[in-house]
Amino acid sequence: MVDSDNANGQVLPRLPIPSLEDTCARYIKVLEPLQTPKEHEQTKAVVHRFLKTEGPLLHERLQEYASTRASYIEEFWYESYLQHSDSVVLSLNPFFILE
């Protein structure tokens, strides 16, 4: 898919890919209230290991993938919503999943 014009005839900018470090920091932060202190320390250790091992390679592959598309997330978004056989509202909404 290539960049397309919106209703005003302007080309929309590509969705930026956040840095791997920023993504991991936000992931750790959002999990903290959902975990016990011990679980959170384990999560931080796993995330830090990911940052030192396969994380950079996977991030590079995502950037390469994104360079060939207008949106790096669109295909995955459609796949997760359109190919799900259960109710999307109940199955993919974090509110219902965490209940």
From TrEMBL:
<dbReference type="GO" id="GO:0009437">
    <property type="term" value="P:carnitine metabolic process"/>
</dbReference>
<dbReference type="InterPro" id="IPR000542">
    <property type="entry name" value="Carn_acyl_trans"/>
</dbReference>
<dbReference type="InterPro" id="IPR042231">
    <property type="entry name" value="Cho/carn_acyl_trans_2"/>
</dbReference>
<comment type="similarity">
    <text>Belongs to the carnitine/choline acetyltransferase family.</text>
</comment>
<feature type="domain" description="Choline/carnitine acyltransferase">
    <location>
        <begin position="15"/>
        <end position="98"/>
    </location>
</feature>
<keyword id="KW-0808">Transferase</keyword>
<dbReference type="InterPro" id="IPR023213">
    <property type="entry name" value="CAT-like_dom_sf"/>
</dbReference>
<dbReference type="GO" id="GO:0004092">
    <property type="term" value="F:carnitine O-acetyltransferase activity"/>
</dbReference>
<dbReference type="Pfam" id="PF00755">
    <property type="entry name" value="Carn_acyltransf"/>
</dbReference>
<dbReference type="InterPro" id="IPR039551">
    <property type="entry name" value="Cho/carn_acyl_trans"/>
</dbReference>
<dbReference type="GO" id="GO:0005739">
    <property type="term" value="C:mitochondrion"/>
</dbReference>
<protein>
    <recommendedName>
        <fullName>Choline/carnitine acyltransferase domain-containing protein</fullName>
    </recommendedName>
</protein>
<keyword id="KW-0012">Acyltransferase</keyword>
